[in-house]
Amino acid sequence: MQLFTFFRSSAAYRVRIALNFKGIAYESVPVDLRPGEHHRPEYLARNPQGLVPALADDGAVIGQSLAIIEYLEETHPEPPLLPREPRHRAQVRAMALAIACDLHPLNNLRVLNYLRGPLGQDEQSVNAWYRHWVGVVFAGLETQARAHSDGRTLFAGCVTLADVCLVPQLFNARRFSCELAPFPTLTAVGASLETLPAFAQAAPAAQPDAS
């Protein structure tokens, strides 16, 4: 497997965690978003959306981090990232999607750059946008976590897809100096997860393209 990745991409970070957690060997292929390597024709030929991550496996290329992780879950079911009971699986997916669908798109680099560029927003305004949406989504997620977390993971003491999404988003929140004191359950779970090898080895600072 090859993972086309950027060290600071939270979506790529999710996939690195999942690959590590499942013990799947892969080759990391850095794609530097800063000079726009993801817009080059050779990369667009692999992933027409021009986003990272993309996973190449046995002649196929898969985009979108959650689609990649679901593919890994189906092809490498152990250890699982989704509970067996349908209602529990739905709850885990709901927490994961709150981050991946409700929050991450609004904090994506291309969205922030559009605010800075065509819409003419200064850096203070862009950062205020970022922090606002982190607060909105994390507030709901904190309530869900209090109902389902054991303090070490988001759901029932098992590492799940929700945890895989949480840790990269906490990294981004800290990077943009978001106020995290109102979310003690999320931060406690994140701190616990970050000590696990699968998460630590996937961290941005541990990547070969980190700079």
How would you summarize this macromolecular structure in one to three sentences?
This protein has 211 residues and is of the alpha+beta class.
What does this structure look like?
- The chain is an alpha+beta fold and 211 residues long.
- The chain has 2 domains: 2-78, Glutaredoxin (3-Layer(aba) Sandwich); 86-197, Glutathione S-transferase Yfyf (Class Pi), Chain A, domain 2.
- Helices cover 54% and strands 8% of the residues.
- It has a 4-stranded mixed β-sheet with strand order 2-1-3-4, covered by helices on one side.
- β3 (54-57) and β4 (60-63) form a beta hairpin.
- α1 (10-21) packs antiparallel against α7 and α4 (86-107) packs antiparallel against α6 (123-148).
- The mean pLDDT is 96.
Compute the CA-based radius of gyration.
17 Å
Instruction: Please count the helical segments.
Output: 9
Compute the separation of the termini in Å: 24 Å
Mean pLDDT: 96
Spatial order of strands in the largest sheet: 2-1-3-4
What is the level-2 CATH architecture name of the largest domain?
Up-down Bundle
Topology order in helix (H) and strand (E) letters: EHEHEEHHHHHHH
Look at the structure and give the CATH class of the largest domain. Answer: Mainly Alpha
Structural class, by secondary structure, is alpha+beta
**CATH topology-level fold name of the largest domain:** Glutathione S-transferase Yfyf (Class Pi), Chain A, domain 2
**Biggest sheet features:** 4 strands, mixed
Strand content: 5-15%
The proportion of residues forming helix, as a percent range, comes to: 40-55%
Q: What would the principal axes of the Cα set say about the shape?
A: globular
Count of discrete structural domains:
2
> Which parts are unreliable, with pLDDT below 50 for 5 consecutive residues or more?
none
